[in-house]
Design brief:
470 residues, Rossmann fold, 41% helix, binds nicotinamide-adenine-dinucleotide, binds uridine-5'-diphosphate-glucuronic acid
């Protein structure tokens, strides 16, 4: 192989990152064969579904990209070893959740799937292979990957003398719900590494559709740390504005006005200043906790505490929303019907990982409330699983899930909006009020409804960052 020209890519991990990222690479680089592999047979089967509504993840625009590239130069398979053996470049895009036991439990990232992937690459790669970290990883993981790849005992006998490797870091900055747009028009592409030829090879792929001035090269450790830092800064803004939402509710200020006023300062900027029920998603909390763990590891205790507060404020905000619902419903929700609108951690995704809706719903179930949950994209199986309840055990007792908003609000004492789905900003509140039990309440944690409409419908209204509106 010409070391600079990549003809075939293998991506280990067909998840929220691996799937869309490789689909866009294949779409933009028709001369490269891109194969996404996973140990999860069901997931791979879903990626190969003829019916594009059955793809394993919901992401606007993904179906069109898959339609163009799949079967042409984009493939999904469980044949991991063969694909590694026939690829010039291997992306590692597996999950890196927070450790649940052992040293660093609750903080450090569990990189066992990254290690397993590296061992598999060591065993099956042939010739020269560029290994690219796509997963978000603790700083210096590239050194561990390199060590695994370079240990002769990890290789197959026939490959031992022939296989060579370069390791690069290429973290992903896409957001769910806007992943395709983020991948097609990224703010920047970050590539860390030392091997110039390998860096050129990876850069050449992105140059097919990304301007050169948007491609940033750094050393490996800066690249790994920049990913954690980017998420920490974004999450910090949300915790900051959520802390201000509570001050607004206490003082009569309006958090939307404060956000606008401070965001107009170009040094601050408008983005990521929406107060809400706290951030969710698979990464913000995990990546900050990973940063906290690293700080502690290096003896930087004040720095660790500083970032820890961003997560603690987020948890506090989620519990705060539940307490507010309780207080406004005369201090009790036992036996009351509460409609939860939105279960995904943000709009335009079916992902519920760390969704604020999970913690808030659990708090309300614990208080004895009957929840009626609506989400346009999250399946009822997923909601049952996230709430840790069996369908048989609770249906008709504490939980009802519907794909119809009007069914979900039937006889409700309160409607609690937890995800900013566009359809919730267009609801007919006069009609909803007629279905609810008086005195009906609306709790808008995402600032999506028009307060005037709620007032006209004769409902009580609480909104994040200005409290109960008279
Ligand atoms: P995911 O859980 O959706 O997907 C990971 C996939 O890897 C799973 O399908 C799993 O079966 C597979 N896998 C695990 N071990 C494997 C192995 N040994 N061989 C083959 N397949 C294996 O995770 P995700 O959301 O795609 O995240 C992946 C990484 O990207 C994480 O490190 C995450 O922090 C990072 N990231 C995620 C996002 C996001 O928006 N979700 C954005 C940027 C970065
Ligand atoms: C986030 C980052 O935005 C991506 O750059 C990063 O690649 C990704 O994490 C990752 O590493 O996984 P994502 O979690 O998909 O992306 O979605 P965001 O749009 O960042 O939203 C995260 C959470 O913050 C959501 O619950 C959202 O509702 C909340 N949020 C966001 C607010 O409460 N207020 C805001 O102003 C913005």
């Amino acid at each position: 192989m010409n070391k600079n020209v990549i003809e075939s890519i293998c991506c280990i991990g067909a998840g929220y990152v691996g799937g869309p990222t490789m689909a866009v690479i294949a779409d933009r680089c028709p001369d490269i064969k891109v194969t996404v592999v996973d140990i999860n047979e069901k997931r791979i089967a879903a990626w190969n579904e003829d019916d594009l509504d059955k793809l394993p993840i919901y992401e606007p625009g993904l179906d069109a990209v898959i339609k163009r590239a799949r079967g042409r130069n984009l493939f999904f398979t469980t044949s991991i070893n063969e694909t590694i053996a026939s690829s010039d470049m291997v992306f590692i895009s597996v999950n890196t959740p927070t450790k649940t036991k052992g040293l660093g439990a609750g903080e450090a990232s569990d990189i066992r799937w990254v290690e397993a992937s590296a061992r598999q690459v060591a065993k099956y790669a042939k010739g020269h292979t560029i290994v690219v970290e796509k997963s978000t990883l603790p700083v210096r993981t590239a050194a561990a990957i390199r060590s695994i790849l370079e240990t002769p005992q990890n290789r197959n006998e026939e490959n031992t003398s022939k296989a060579t490797f370069s390791v690069l870091s290429n973290p992903e900055f896409l957001s769910e719900g806007t992943a395709i747009n983020d991948l097609e028009s990224p703010d920047r592409v970050l590539i860390g590494g030392e091997d110039l030829e390998a860096l050129d090879s990876l850069e050449a792929i992105y140059l097919q559709w990304v301007d050169k001035d948007k491609i940033i090269r750094t050393n490996l450790w800066s690249s790994e740390l920049s990913k954690l830092t980017a998420n920490a800064f974004l999450a910090q803004r949300i915790s900051s504005i959520n802390s201000v939402s509570a001050i607004c509710e206490a003082t009569g200020a309006d958090v939307r006005e404060v956000s606008k006023a401070i965001g107009s300062d170009s040094r601050i900027g408008q983005k990521f200043l929406n107060a809400g029920p706290g951030f969710g998603g698979s990464c913000f909390q995990k990546d900050i906790l990973n940063l906290v763990y690293l700080c502690r590891h290096f003896g930087l205790l004040n720095v660790a505490e500083y970032w820890q507060q961003v997560v603690e404020l987020n948890t506090w905000q989620q519990h705060r929303i539940y307490r507010l619902v309780l207080q406004n419903l005369f201090g009790t929700v036992t036996g009351k019907k509460l409609a939860i609108l939105g279960f995904a951690f943000k709009a335009d995704t079916n992902d519920t990982r760390e969704s604020p809706a999970i913690r808030i719903s659990k708090d309300l179930l614990e208080e004895g409330a009957f929840l009626m949950i609506h989400d346009p994209k999250v399946s009822s199986e997923k909601i049952y699983e996230d709430l840790g309840v069996s369908k048989l055990e609770t249906n008709n007792e504490q939980l009802f899930i519907s794909k119809n908003v009007f069914e979900a609000v039937n006889e409700a004492d309160a409607v609690i909006i937890l995800t900013e789905w566009n359809e919730y900003s267009k609801l007919d509140w006069a009609l909803i009020a007629k279905k609810m039990r008086a005195p009906g309440w609306v709790f808008d944690t995402r600032s999506v409804v028009d307060p005037e409409q709620i007032k006209l419908a004769g409902l009580n209204f609480w909104r994040v960052g200005d409290g109960v509106l008279g």
